[in-house]
Amino acid sequence: MKRLMYSGTGLLVLLLAFLAFNMASSVLLTGARLDLTEQKLYTISDGTRQILRDIDEPITLYFFFSDRASKDMVMLRNYARRVEEMLKEYERVAGGKLRLQIIDPQPFSEAEDRAAEFGLQAIPLSQTGDKLYFGLAGTNSLAQREIIPFFTLEQEGLLEYELSRLVNSLSQPEKPQIGLISGLPIGGGMNPMSGQPMPPWTVLEQIRQLFTIQSLEPDLDEIPEDIEVLLLIHPKSLTESALFAVDQFVLRGGRLLSFIDPYAEMDISTDAMIEGMADGRASDLGPLLAAWGVDYDLEKVVVDTRLGMSVSRGQGQLPARHIGWLELEQAQRDSEDTVTAPLQLLTIATGGALKPIEGASTRFMPLLSSTASSALVDSSRFATLQDPEALLNGFQADEQIYHFAARLQGPASTAYPQGLEGREPVLTEADNINVLLVADTDLLSDRMWVQVQDFFGQRIPQPWADNGGFLINALDNLSGSEALISVRSRGDFSRPFTVVQDLQRKAERRFRASEQRLQQQLAETERRLAELQQNQDPTQLTELSSEQQEAIQRFLDDKLEIRKQLRDVRFQLNADIERLGNWLKVINIGLVPLLLSLGMLGWWLIGRWRRKA
């Protein structure tokens, strides 16, 4: 046997056995995989399995991929293979209720005409003149269609959600009815400041994929009976009659999701532009909040030094810490509520604070909160804010935690016990209400969570935060459809360097202290120069006295010294980060192999000792 193993024939037999094993495994074990990612990104979620099990009528999926035209595109072909494998897994789990057809649309073929008929995106290949198809179309027994025009590499992290959303839409022909009243231009339109057209916000496009939207007027008298969830975004224009209608809608069991704001930065309405102050950008729900047991000050904004975002100040300038724009991580959201549990990162811009009223009958359940390094400031400060770091001047945390979003449930009474003029309340109380309140509207704008790119005329969103997922999760939850919630936000491949971020924050605080000293010295020197020039002959202003020259020289010396200190702080920041990187290299390159080698050596020594024993 040993001679055979070491002979040429033996090596040839081993090679053939190895090839046979690989060929057999590629055929027999095509669905076998081991997912070692932390969030199980490559494993079908329970929500997807629930959606596939709930299919009542057959669904047919047509996966179009130009296999021949993409023969030189390795990354795209690998992605296409992953899409195909996941679709086959969907077909297997659905148990015959979902049929998959894989099509390679050749040029000038019926398959290409079919892809064009479905509305799939064709990408021209300049080197060959062919067209590349890489999309999905689905149909149900009612001849309804849903498509994914093109699978872009940038959205690979959202692959399972997009596939599950398409299947869910086909399996539920009747989409939930959402009533929408918005005081912000989420539907696009013309920007009155720039005169340029604005595209619809990405969140609106996502809502349209899953729900049927009815746009309602802010002066309505009654919420239609077919509305399942009422969505209010910056409802500053609601009339008293409309507030009364919302009150009755909630008491009769209607579910409400409302985004209010003490300072809506995206408000470009005429009254906001004319007033120019914070009052024109604030919104609330009048007496409804108090009736539901919530206290909210529409003149106060939450700032937080621990969660402040780093924002650009322009070319050649260091980034600024904006403590009114916040990044909420897992520690700042409710990890048990189905709306916020799957999310990773959310952003808030000049958000307000929601507080429970003591003795209220409703249950106040916080969803998104600040840290203890926060405080409330007047919203008017943001109306004239030029430098975000000016918010740090004189800042002192009040050691309280403020809530940006909350769920309200439990018994509640009407805010209009006497009704309105000529209108008596049909309902005066309810055993249980279902309301979600969010004290920020800017989190829905594209700039706070997504980058939209144009891909051959198709708008491709690339989310970097989960704000859109938060809105859709809330609507799914309130409309009673929670299967997609567990699928959403599973594509978070971003793993931030939190230690590096902490080092940057500490160095920036030191940097800012030095910068403030420089500004104070500059102001003091300019004041002294002004005093000296007041006693100077106006005809001799161009001639500097010795005292002026000494003051200027002292200022220049101080300025050079402070600049040296700023360079030292920046160097120390880079040195700390570089030292951390060196330690990581030592651990990954040297320590881990050393430990493995020592482990193998110890295993060998123990085995040898046992054999001797």
TrEMBL record:
Pfam families: ABC_transp_aux (PF09822), DUF7088 (PF23357). Residues 38-138 form the DUF7088 domain. The keyword Coiled coil applies. The keyword Membrane applies. The chain crosses the membrane at residues 583-606. Residues 175-474 form the ABC-type uncharacterised transport system domain. Keywords: Coiled coil, Membrane, Transmembrane, Transmembrane helix. Residues 504-535 form a coiled coil. This is ABC transporter. It comes from Pseudomonas jilinensis. The lineage of its organism: Bacteria, Pseudomonadati, Pseudomonadota, Gammaproteobacteria, Pseudomonadales.
